[in-house]
Amino acid sequence: MSSLPNTEIILQILLSVGIIVIAAKFLGTQVKKIGFPVVAGQIVAGLLLRFLPFFQNFGGGETSVIYREANQFITYMSEIGVILIMYSAGLGTNLKSLIKSGFKATLIACCGVFVPLFMGAVMALCFWGFVGFGTAKFYQAMFIGTILTATSVSISVATLKELGKIKTDVGQAIVSAAIIDDVIGIVVLTVVLGVSTGSGGYTSVILKTILFFICAIVFGYIIFRVFRWYDTKHPHSRRIPIYGLGIAFIYAFAAEKFFGIADITGAYIAGVVFCSLTDAPYMEQKIDINSYMIFSPIFFACIGLKTDLSGMDMSLLWFALAFVIVGCISKIIGCSGISRLLGFDWKDSYRIGLGMMVRGEVALIVAQKGLSVGMVDSKYFAPVILLIIVSSMVVPVLLGKAFKD
Question: For the domain 92-290+310-404, what is the CATH code?
């Protein structure tokens, strides 16, 4: 009898995963026929699936142990999905172009952080009333701006790969800037939370970030040499993609566990380590099969599944609309403006701004961190979800049109 609940949970997982994969693929295919990116359809699939009983209040709130455990498993699969997407993006990176765009990407990332931080804080103060520096409301407004600093590169990467633009200078600038953007955003989050709570600690985070990249480069060079030797002994072997995937998961784990860096950053860096191998395209192809078949559809559908706007009233709705507008415009202003000054033409600058506009899992992590320490009321989580949904659906469409012009 004790094994019955586990059996029921497994059956629920099988049913849920089957429904998600079919719905995400079907809607992704349908929207592609009318000129929309596949990922937009997959997000819509997640939104529609919330009407099914066992997907309501996805990720928590169910009274049934079976539903709760099944949905938790799906959440884990979506996390693996985004790691695979980022690892594949790293494998497809042109390292020479990445190094070439390193300085420009850093400046783009800096403007992509501080312009949304400033505009978001001012927007929040317009709703709450302007207060003096150092007050609780001031730090809460700063935290609202901090949420807007995050960039979800995974959706932009998926769209760029679909458009065949991931290896262009614009594509590499977006990916590189987004990775640096998240690192800077984590530091900003630590500073805001540290100062507001009086706990400090931001110096250690900066040191951990620097240490992470030092370790990633040192160990990455050693791993690259070993894999290059192994690649000459066993060219085009299926063992190479398997070993590489294992390294990617370890990098993702180490980044989050030991350095406080987002796991997706670790996965991307692991891909960059292998991108110069002769068999890098072969490795990318094998990873894309797993991602395309199951993990990627689940990840994008989960964005829709996690959205619950039932508790939104009119005052919060106006705040949410302003939050979304400022969140989108601030990235375009900051990233496109500096891109134009760095030598990109207006079209490419606009494309970079669009690529940096999307928000996703990192914004959720930032919001949850602030909520856990009482920085803002839980009702302000709804505007974050709305921004994620709007930007996740709008950016792929606008990017597709921008590259066709």
Answer: 1.20.1530.20
